[in-house]
Design goal:
alpha/beta; binds S-adenosyl-L-homocysteine
């Protein structure tokens, strides 16, 4: 059993089970999540006997940062090697006062979006809550003294809502202000291919985190070709769930839209998107396609800049907040849709 990834309340229960008080469990949570310490030897305010009992029954382990690759743009890709030899990655992206961490939730991904390199891996397995939270704890320890990750996006490998239980446990640990890591939910964004049942369930958790939808097309025919998931939940079903997602007064839903030359990037596509989003408190992030080996054969290329800006201006004219998001870490295979790590035999 790994203590990293247990909820603070579970650590309290465990302390009692081991013959100590709930207070000891709270101390454990404080060391792990508030002080980012996983070495029992350093937890000097815990009785020696209690630490010995824990050491017999459990471990405190973080994913191993096997490789850290810096990009020319200041971002860094961390490749983690997990207990079973699987590999996942996370990306640290500094931008002014912000330091955003992009986290993975699965080894590989099962949704097979046609333009995504991770999708070509297939799904290997779900991460557990400790492996999700652990990516952040390691990233924070890699930053210089006094700096820490300020924003979290669940946009790495995997489909967060397909690993629902571990995702929600991780989110509770991340947002628990007293005994957890203590991030404001407004600084956390979970991105999904559009799993309607998961969106509805997440809305009921009262977590107050941001939701991002990977939309990529405003017509069912195009979207189903790019994203097989659209055959289970089409745009009407998806938008109905999105409209019901609870939002705080100034909060908005984010929509990601990968721009693919000649596929989904015409001014008519933009107009269709504007119609689809009518009446939704939306912010659109246009992501110019990031290349990977074999993408061109599959028919995917980044549109010329003029076409990207023309698409954006249709949305802006319709009154929709729209930014072009130039991905970070393209030179190190860390940009959106470029995360793939070798799978052990
Ligand atoms: N599975 C979730 C989380 C991953 S987020 C989801 O799809 O939302 C990663 C984002 O990068 C998604 O919006 C994905 O569609 C996008 N993406 C995938 N491949 C890409 C590529 N080659 N270029 C640009 N964006 C890409």
């Amino acid at each position: 059993m790994n203590l990293v990834g247990l909820l603070p309340s579970q650590l309290e229960d465990l302390a009692v089970e081991l013959g100590a008080s709930r207070y000891r469990g709270r101390q454990l949570a404080t060391w792990i999540y508030r002080k980012n310490v996983v070495d029992l030897g350093a937890m000097t305010d815990l009785p020696k006997e209690f630490r010995a009992v824990i050491a017999e029954r459990a471990v405190l382990s973080l994913p191993d940062a096997e490789r850290v690759t810096p990009s020319q743009d200041g971002s860094r890709k961390i490749v983690f090697r997990l207990e079973d030899g699987s590999r996942i990655s996370a990306v640290i992206m500094p931008d002014g006062d912000r330091i955003t961490l992009c986290l993975s939730t699965q080894v590989g991904c099962g949704y097979e979006c046609a333009f995504c390199l991770t999708g070509t891996m297939g799904l290997e397995r779900n991460l557990n809550a400790g492996e999700i939270v652990g990516q952040l704890m390691v990233a924070n320890s890699l930053l210089p003294e006094g700096q820490r990750v300020t924003h979290l996006v669940f946009m790495g490998m995997g489909e967060p809502l397909a690993n629902y239980a571990a995702l929600v446990t991780a989110l509770r640990i991340l947002t628990d202000a007293r005994l957890g890591i203590g991030y404001s939910p407004r600084r956390i964004t979970v991105s999904t291919v559009g799993l309607v049942s998961g969106i509805e369930r997440l809305g009921r958790e009262d977590l107050k985190i941001n939701l991002a939808i990977s939309l990529h097309a405003a017509r069912d025919e195009t979207r189903a070709r790019l994203m097989p998931v659209n055959r289970s939940w089409n745009l009407a079903a998806l938008m109905a769930a999105v409209r019901k997602y609870p939002l705080a007064p100034r909060q908005r839903i984010f929509f990601e839209y990968v721009l693919l030359n000649g596929v989904n990037d015409s001014p008519e596509d933009a107009a269709q998107l504007a119609r689809l989003l009518r009446g939704v408190r939306a912010k659109v992030n246009l992501i110019p396609f990031n290349d990977w080996e074999g993408a061109e054969d599959a028919g995917f290329r980044r549109p010329p800049i003029a076409r990207i800006l023309a698409f954006q201006s249709v949305l802006l004219d319709a009154g929709i907040t729209t930014t072009v998001r130039w991905s970070k870490g393209e030179d190190i295979g860390a940009a959106c849709g470029q995360l793939r790590e070798p799978v052990p035999a």
